[in-house]
Every structure is written in structure tokens, then in C-alpha cells.
Give the backbone structure.
Amino acid sequence: MAVSVGLVAQVLEKIAPKSWAEDWDNVGLLVGEASASVERVLIALDGTVNVIEEAREIGAQLIITHHPLMFRPLKNLRNDNLSAQVPIRALKYGISYYASHTNLDQSRLSASWSIGEALKLRKLELLAETAHEELVKLVVFVPEPQVEDVRLALVRVGVGDGVTEGPGSDLYSECFFQSVGEGMFRPLQGANPAIGELGELTKVNEVKLEGILPKQLVSRAIKALRQAHPYEEPAYDLIPLHNNGKSRGYGVIGYLDKPEKLREFWPRVLSSLTDLVPSELLQSKAESGLFGGVRVAGDLDKEIRKVAIANGSGGSFASKAVFKGADLFITGDIDYHAVLDSLEAGMAIADLGHYWSELPMLKNIANCLAGEKQLQGIDICISKANSVPWVEVGKI
């Protein structure tokens, strides 16, 4: 069953809103149109020419990547411009292209959370918090017979869905309060009331329905409310809250159940990473060697109890990990001097490289889309075209 590109984007943006992206980033729908029809989605880490050709071969109408196209403005779309090849081919083949980058890194779909949970770290929390969600209470008045229709419409866009910051927030959804009362209104000339007559004061048994939502979902919620509500002009209130919503940020930090020596813990890190790698890439991984380029710095007999993780180019968070007392920092693309500084501070470093440290997010995106009722029936595929670019010297 086909859906729109825009609907797929909405599902991702409920968890990783575009507004979370850094100012320098380039996220969202980068090629194509929101109204385009989608029956098959291809998910990849990078939007390369090979990925575009793979999408064409399998009949995918939408590519979702972590790394965006066009970080810098393109000055032309010439066929001899290498930087323009991906958008040119996407347009030629009628394939839309969507990217979720630093906004995804700050969400619960990030590889940092996946790795931390796979390692069974306790008291897992953000390594570098960037912000809290702003919350709004939506109050709407609905005739009793239609209250369930309106409530379900709001549920579908994320109202009442575990938005507070408490530790059990994610364990609850469809959180509303309702009370019964009497609404009244007088339809004037030109109105088309669902209930009552023009010029007459109409009294209706109504339900006051209240639910909390993140501020960035307000416009979507009001649109859903208007579509489901029987009145041509529903009565509703939007109340800004001082309560903090869910926090967001980069990386995670947590504790092992008991201290382990680095030489004992490291194989468990690789084993967990193996479980997080999409099965579509296991064959290519085996051919290129098990996690080629992955490396560790530090005393292998050092006891590890507190572990920090930041996927991608997370080297800039090394000092934050040191400050928070991490014994080991797992990241990618960390530079030489940051490693030396970390070792001087008594913290070991595990450099997974950019590719391996972010690959778990492909599974996360696929699971997110597959779990959405509105997207049931579309095919969700993970690209086989991306691979780690490095070749181990010993294999040449």
C-alpha cells in the first residue's frame, strides 16, 4: 500500500524533529516532493551514487540517509560535476531523498543509545544534554458521541504519548484527562452548525479532553483535531507549560553491573556491535574483516565501570566524558591529541570509526517505520551498497 513521502517524514520527525538539527546541518526532504507516492523505502548511512542506483534497481521511491546531501550549496547541476551526481540521478529516476542527521543523533534512535542498551549499562543518561522539549497542554471541547474519534486522531499525531521527563515516561501512551460538562453557542448568519439552529442558543453535553504534547507537534495536532471534530469551528485552548519535557542531547553514559578489565570488556563491545549491525551488511562485513579499523587506546588491565558513548565524530565530547568520570569512552573519528589528553586523564578510548559507530541507526530507522500503523504495507529495505571505505593494510 502506497503512502506519501510526507507521511514517512512525519513519522521520523515525531522522534527526531528537524528543529533539533544544528544550524550548519542540512536535514529533511532534500530531493523530491512531500506528496510523492512511496511503496518501498531504502535506508542507508550515506547517499552515494551506488545507493541511488541500488534504489533504482529495487524500485524504491524514497531514500532515507543519516548523512545529508549538499552540505555546501551546489553552483550547478551539470553532469560533469561529481557533487551533483546524486541529486541529478535522484531527480532523473523520480526518487525522493530525506536525511536525518544531528537531529537523529540527539534522539532515542541514535546509535549511542543502541550501543549503551546492548551493553546493558545501568543508569543510562545523556552524555551532553542540549535542551529540553517545551510542552503544551491541549484542551478541546467535544460532543460526547465524537470524543473517541477526536481522541484517537490526537493519539495518532503524538498527543499524550510519554512526553514528561520522568523515568517511566516512555512506558505510557494515550495519557488524557476528560471531564463532562455543558457547552453552549449561538450560530450566527452564515454558519453551518453540526448541531443546533441559526440564531438559537444551543446547549450540548460535551467532554473536556486534555492532553500534553511537545510544542513542535502543535500545528499537526490542531490539523488532526479540526479534521476529526464535528464542529466547523472547534473550541480549544493551548496552554504553555513550565514542566520540562524529554531532554535531548548527544551520547550516553552509564555503569556496568560490575567492573571488568578492558581486555575482557572489549570483546563484549564487538559482540554487541555485531548484533546491532543490519543483517543485510553481515556478508560485506565478513569479507572486509571483522570491524576493520576499530582500535583501543589504554591499559588493557584497566578496570572499566563507567562507560561513555558518542556515535559518529564524537571526539569533541571526550572532555565531557572525562568530566563525568568515564573509565572508557567509545566513539568514532577521535583525533590523536584528544586520545593523548584522555589517556593522561585516566580514561581509555575505543575508536570504532565513523561507519561502525553509526551503522546501528539503520536498524533503528527501519524499526521505527515498521512499527508505525500508518505505514503498514510499505517495503522497508536497508542498503547493501554502503560499506566501510578503509582497507586494512594487512589485507592488501
